[in-house]
Automatic annotation (TrEMBL):
Its EC number is 2.1.1.223. GO terms for biological process: methylation. One of its GO terms (molecular function) is methyltransferase activity. Its main location: cytoplasm. Belongs to the methyltransferase superfamily. tRNA (adenine-N(6)-)-methyltransferase family. It is an enzyme of class 2 (transferase). Residues 39-123 form the Methyltransferase small domain. InterPro entries: DNA_methylase_N6_adenine_CS, SAM-dependent_MTases_sf, Small_mtfrase_dom, tRNA_Adenine-N(6)_MTase, tRNA_adenine-N6_MeTrfase. It is found in: Cytoplasm. It catalyses: adenosine(37) in tRNA1(Val) + S-adenosyl-L-methionine = N(6)-methyladenosine(37) in tRNA1(Val) + S-adenosyl-L-homocysteine + H(+). Pfam families: MTS. Keywords: Cytoplasm, Methyltransferase, S-adenosyl-L-methionine, Transferase, tRNA processing. This is tRNA1(Val) (adenine(37)-N6)-methyltransferase. The lineage of its organism: Bacteria, Pseudomonadati, Bacteroidota, Flavobacteriia, Flavobacteriales. It comes from Autumnicola lenta.
Amino acid sequence: MSDKIFKFKEFSVEQDKSAMKIGTDGVLLGAWTPLEHNLESILDIGTGTGLIALMMAQRSSAFAIDAIEIEENAYEQAVENFENSDWGDRLFCYHADLNEFAEEMQDEEKYDLIISNPPFYAAPLSPEVAENEQKIPKARKMARFSDSLPFDHLVRGASLLLSEKGIFSVIIPYSEEENFIDLASKVHLFPKKITRVKGTETSALKRSLLAFSFQKTAVQTDELIIEISRHNYTEAYKKLVAPFYLKL
């Protein structure tokens, strides 16, 4: 498998132009996100290569799957990946900033599902890390650092664009879970499902998969372990991602 193209069971993703390549986080979110039977519209915020939007096209019958991406090269790549898929008529990418998009669309469009694998790494950085970051291309920084899409902007944008009974789904560092839930509550979004992810049985919790809605309900909480040992994946992980990966 080359760095340029990543082949899944039902689609392929070109990734040579996009700053952030395909990784476990995006695939986890796309596979895990709860889908309602009557989904009509989906929005993928910060789509990058378009991976998660493509996964939503495979998993759902939603007739409108929109994506937004601010970085120009990634936007162009997502458009190409959408056009090259079997679902090009359902997929559309906007070259847009979330705040502007939300302000413009909030009175016109409400989405039944909003999904995002947002940038994780927050500044300020230690001097050593900062020095290394100087060498990272701007596009990759935008894809990695949360100051390009702060969590408070993300939850606000989602609250403006989500339908009354819609779901907002994200993957974030486990260390940010409490803070993110607090930010979401301020715009009346409440956790519905939480899955905490760790690499192995003995490793620390690394990620939180969170699904929110405007309704306060009992929260379904569980844990997902990815590997038993190196490249020896758990049955739970294999079952989750089996519809997408060619082999595990």
